[in-house]
# Entry
Amino acid sequence: MNQKLFFSGLIVMFALSAAGHYFHFGNTLQFIISAIAIIFVAGFLGKATESVAHYAGQRLGGFLNATFGNAAELIIAIFLIRARQFEMVKASLTGAIIGNLLLVLGLSVLLGGLKYKEQRFNNRLAEHNATLMIMAVIGLFVPAVFVVSERFTFDQDQFLSLAVAGILIVSYILWLVFSMITHKDMLADEVMTADHGEAPAWSKGKSIIYLVVATVMVAFVSEWLVHTLDAFSEQFGLSELFIGAFVIAIVGNAAEHSAAVLLAMKNKIGAAVEIAIGSSLQIALFVAPVLILVSAMFGNTMDIVFTPIELTAIGVSVFIAKSVSRDGQTNWYEGVLLLMVYVILGIAFYLV
Amino acid sequence: MNQKLFFSGLIVMFALSAAGHYFHFGNTLQFIISAIAIIFVAGFLGKATESVAHYAGQRLGGFLNATFGNAAELIIAIFLIRARQFEMVKASLTGAIIGNLLLVLGLSVLLGGLKYKEQRFNNRLAEHNATLMIMAVIGLFVPAVFVVSERFTFDQDQFLSLAVAGILIVSYILWLVFSMITHKDMLADEVMTADHGEAPAWSKGKSIIYLVVATVMVAFVSEWLVHTLDAFSEQFGLSELFIGAFVIAIVGNAAEHSAAVLLAMKNKIGAAVEIAIGSSLQIALFVAPVLILVSAMFGNTMDIVFTPIELTAIGVSVFIAKSVSRDGQTNWYEGVLLLMVYVILGIAFYLV
Amino acid sequence: MNQKLFFSGLIVMFALSAAGHYFHFGNTLQFIISAIAIIFVAGFLGKATESVAHYAGQRLGGFLNATFGNAAELIIAIFLIRARQFEMVKASLTGAIIGNLLLVLGLSVLLGGLKYKEQRFNNRLAEHNATLMIMAVIGLFVPAVFVVSERFTFDQDQFLSLAVAGILIVSYILWLVFSMITHKDMLADEVMTADHGEAPAWSKGKSIIYLVVATVMVAFVSEWLVHTLDAFSEQFGLSELFIGAFVIAIVGNAAEHSAAVLLAMKNKIGAAVEIAIGSSLQIALFVAPVLILVSAMFGNTMDIVFTPIELTAIGVSVFIAKSVSRDGQTNWYEGVLLLMVYVILGIAFYLV
# Structure
């Protein structure tokens, strides 16, 4: 998108969203405006992060991208946690994971596959990602089984949640050490430091200022959006689960999603796969456990126990994404399968 | 089998089965006669389909084989649906899937492996089939989890079942487009259009007439067989589940089963694997959802919710079949493992 | 370890353990002494088995190693069965499986990986092992699903358990036939007959005598250890599950564990992987079903129904071990992931 146009849209939507909040527009209108504003401010934050990462050099830059790539998602979730909307936080985490693995990966593979008969990428990385995805699923799955089938007390539940959160974060940090320090040369260039589309041509100073401004903007719009959710969900008879898993997850990741699809259509399917799978790994191994710790600091620990249908959604997404990406080749039909699974889950969550 | 002998057997068993039905033979006798008759008429239908497919040219022929390869199974199930034996329909679908993945594949791999130390086949196709199998499992698994753990109402259950059925059929049709049109050249010749044994040397006109006659014969014998099931299951204390999953599934697929085993023993293990896995995919992605739609047309929608033990049976079969076929090599011991799992499931279903 | 030192330790700990038992030391002291004694006597039994196997020739030797490699584990479990501690038996089997797949494999991969950037091994064997591990999981998983969701009676439960135990043992015997007779040449030398470290330089006669003596010593110390368990678990507020799965499993396999880690550090990662995965397969496909049959001979059949959390622990261990070993390459980070899953399970079991 043209940069001037983007900034105009960004400022207009931010202002409209602020106006909606302070002048009490109707709930639905407020929700729609804030949702569109989130797409813009999250996109802005993503671009600013990339630009700062660009100046920070390969290693630190890779780290920044890996850590703050889902900053918008994280900020929205923190406001949800402050509002004690724990169920919606977990639904939005679920939605972000399946959105990346099914919608983003599916669209990338489908649209890339319609243009190129077969697209190939380094499946050495896919192997590593597969093991990490299994780790992520285990980290979310084990607490649910133990807490439910052993009828854990509140304290046991909290302790296990904090412990698992800590272990997942340590695993994530060690993964950064592995992929950026000890075994950097063995993984494709695509990893982490991937060129996620055209980097904006901002100066170093400007990039840093933009990063700060974007973060603040995301924080404001997130709060305004969170305020509208209850009324909106009531008005349209939508469950918290559906809003969290499909609405919030999609608007919070829209910018990243479009980047992946555009890369796939330029035959850079490896980078698209890396964005989609890397982002979902980041959510499961870093964002989710950080939110557990943040909630504990707020004095009211959110547990890491996802519901059976959330775990099912995550589990089936990981399985089919793993199966599609395993051989380092993609075609349009694999994109169709990913999207079909997304539609099935969407209908099922809508009916809940 | 000698063709003359086959036709004699076909006519004799059909006549005996009709006599049994109209002159009210004992229930057990009627059941046994109809079961043997089904093996003959289903075999006849299979041969007629292949012969028509042969004249229809490669593309349309492949489509016919892919769509009507399980026609006998489909017709039997339609009569079960008309009799509102929904549980038995689902049990017979389960049985057809696990019968193909464990019994047919297991016998083919074992007997082929006893003759040839190692058999190899194109595992490019196995990769694709693996992803489709995962799609099939997801399609059957997701509704069960949502309906049970979210306590869906009857209406929600029906809506989800119809929606998932529609999505599975669309996936199946797009798979035909992929494998027969857009990526035909990339998959092995074995796919779909596989030479499933010696094609009968019938003229074009004869083939079409035979197809019509065979379909009518299957329909009649299916009805006669369905009539005997209640009394038979009561007399021998067998559960509907066991009869559906092991008896009906085996007699309905016997002809196809023997074709696969014979191919494996001629060292055409790839074709045998394709029959076994392709047939189970067809059941899960095409026959099962078509039956949901057929039941809706009869005014009494059968839902797509399988029981935990049926899903377990399907899930474990897919996992072990995927593991065995993944590397494009088979040996006798892998056949043993598949058959052992079949025996475990058989005993467990028998005890229910 | 220096052999003289080892024998001194062995005799001292055995004597102390006997003294503790007969002169009624405090429970905790008795427990600690017996636990250390088990490490020594189990190590002695392992060495004696290997030495006898060495003289028995490759085929019979491989069979001995494969069958009696977990003899110490088996003997401890038999004493637990005599004491009707069925829950602790199943917990210790679970612990032995996950201990091998996560702790032993994890430490081997991590420590080997810290020394060598990347370690490689024959992944032909890994493929076979993966299929066998899936078979093992199915054998333990199917009875649990059927018994629980179909509310099997006591008799149905017993019948299914004995049948599945028989099938698993037959599968295991046929695996020995496959890997040692019919397809011996196709699998790596690492299989079964692997050189598990430096073989002790004992004469043939001495080896046999040592084997008998070691077996008797394990039997005695096992009984003394089992006697202390109730009091010990009560005193420290540890569940039977935790003691079985983590304490007994670790002390019973300590010698084998250290052998695997030492091999990995000598860059023989293939042999280390084979010990870890081969040992867990032996537990699941041979030791567990033999214990079912042994309990039946004692007149009180232990069923093969594991709890949901035990099955979860086994299932996730198999999945991540399969994912790590699948590509025939390992690095330190994969070791970290295995150990992290072990820690998560350890905490969860501790909290139960």
Remarks:
- Chain B has a mean pLDDT of 88.
- DSSP finds twelve helices and two strands in chain B.
- The interface with chain A takes residues 127, 130-132, 134-135, 138-139, 141-143, 145-146, 149-150, 152, 156, 159-160, 163-164, 167, 170-171, 174-175, 178, 182-183, 186 of chain B (CB under 8 Å).
- The two ends of chain B are 37 Å apart (CA to CA).
